[in-house]
Structures are given as C-alpha cells and as structure tokens.
Amino acid sequence: MLMPYRHHLPNTVLRIALIAMLASVLLPAASAAPGGEQLFRVLSIEDGDTLLVEVNSKAQRLQLLGIDAPEDVANPKLQRDQQRTGLDTDSLIAIGQAATRHLESLVAPGQMVKLEVDLRKRDKYGRIPAIAYDQKGRALNEAMVEDGYAVILDRYPLDTDFRDRLRHHEKNAIAEARGLWGTHRAATVAWSGRD
Question: What is the pTM assigned to this prediction?
Fold first, then answer.
C-alpha cells in the first residue's frame, strides 16, 4: 500500500537539509574559478614560502608547493639549517627575512589569490600545499624561484611540467645572480646546497 504524499514530505525536506548542511561543511568558502581553481583572500605572509589565507572563514596556512625559502625567525627548522650549514643564526635569518620581504612585494594582505589546491592535503607542518597565482596570473611559487628567493623542493611529487619550469627558473636565477644569489650568495649556497 502506498503512503499518501504528505508522509514523504518530511523525509524529503530532511534529506535536502542534510545535503545542504554537508555541502556547507565540506565545500570551501571561496570563489570558484575555471579548472578547479579557487580564489582565496590573503590574510598575511608568514614567510617566503607560506601564506595565511581565509578558508571557510578560518585562517589556514598555505605552503607554496614545490619550493623552499629560508626561515626568517628562530624555530626548529632554522636550528636544523644552522647545524647542516654551519651558518650563524643572523646570516640565516637575514636571507629568510629578504625572502619574506620579496613575497610581500608580490602579494599583500587583502588581495585574492587563485589556487590550484586540494584542501584535504597537508604537509608535515600542517600547511596546505598549493600553487598560488597573483592577480596578474603569475604563479607565486615560480616567481619566488625565478626571482632568486627560493629553491625547488624535490621531496614532494610535482607535475613534470611544473617541476621543469621551477628547475629552469632556479638555474637561471643562480646563473644571473638574482635575488639572494646576488645579495647573499655565500649564505644562500650554504643554505640551499646549490652553487
């Protein structure tokens, strides 16, 4: 025997409400862009390879995928860099602060960045790895390497074309003494292991 329509209505309403609630929790609060990319508001620049962005009304740390920039404050990674390189804290912090200032010159708090990102992934520091594009469409990841303020980070899987572009930018930045390769060459060579 079929139940009257009015008996199905509460279940349908409940299902719709549940789907809407799950969507609001699971989907990022960001503007959609073509190709699975999303726009996020920059809250601050943490260092030369880390941004703080707004995701679902919360501040989230974003790591510029595929690159590494020197530390700009005393922390455990700076201590490891110090032991590995033999450089003093001031030398390492100087190159880290220069890298941070450069990223701040590329993007500012309040600006929107377009991201290629999987919001479910995190690195070992709890950051969300992503490729971030400024308002002109330039990948900040590539810009930091191309301008000589970061190096390619090979330990994570990267798209082959993206990895090749980063390698090309790094090679040229070193050869042309751009950024840290010109202003702090000895410290940058020791920190990066490149020459």
Answer: 0.81
